[in-house]
Amino acid sequence: RTFVMRVAVLGYGQLGRALVGVLSRRDDVHLRMWTRSSRAEALTAVETFTGDSLCAALDQVEVAILAVSDSALSSVIEDLARLDGAWDGMAVLHTSGVAPPEVLRPLALRGASTAVCHPLRAFPARELGPAENPFEGTLFTLEGSTPAVEAGRRVVELVGGVSLQVTVSDRALYHLAAVVASNFGLLLRGWSARRFADAGLTPRIAAAAADALLRNALDNARDESPAAAVTGPIRRGDLATVESHVRALEGRELLAYGSLGLLMLSWSDGGDAVGRAHLAQLLEDAVQRGLRQSRLPTGETAAPAGLERRA
Fold first, then answer.
1. Residue 89: which domain range?
2. What three-state secondary structure class fits 128?
3. Which of these, 73, 108, 120, 286, is most buried using a 10 Å CB contact count?
4. Is 302 inside a domain boundary?
């Protein structure tokens, strides 16, 4: 006999849409969803609740997944804590990377088991294709009470992910690490592709070149530490080449290059001390010049040179 898990997904943003899209295909999940928005009303394969029907959405549910934005999480928890009804036996999972398990304490006091179930990946804003599963192989970190963590493991298994129970001592640093990998990596990929194109490559070849280099760098980092895997003129202490890079940049790109270069230099301790000092000074000067060029009158904003959105 197939065990059917009764699950409610609260929230219909990027993560909520992905969860609903994947879980709704399973015969071993009785799925409901709730959203403040009317966008979800067109869904036909899922019991959909909106607005003030939150209590009905949770009736007889075993696992409630709070897939709302970080800014909305506290208010949704407050709304849930004010609901009548029994919470004993229900697991409540929030999916925020920055909020600790303790934010769910109002629900724990009502009898629910609570935990964080955070997927370490970004999700598409569009609707999923019929067979698309963005969770396949995705790492989820779990932290909280044992019953809720076990419920989280089951949910992760249902969507094809991989779960890992953790203890996070600093949620801000944890979330920062996730943002650096998932967002800054994309920024660097775009920066590289733009500059390849500016150097004369076609956009398609420029994108392929940036992708190939990123994949190669990640492959190297799997076998050795990032400090050991780093290559290039800063690692080699090639002052002339770094000077040519600095001359080619201005503004915020120059600031970014200098800052990242100094960080890279701090990771390696080899090479000639005098040469490293000259290189550090060159990069520090680049940071200061980039800062001066990037300063704008109060109230004005601008995209970094070469990274502005193109029509």
1. 5-168
2. coil
3. 286
4. no
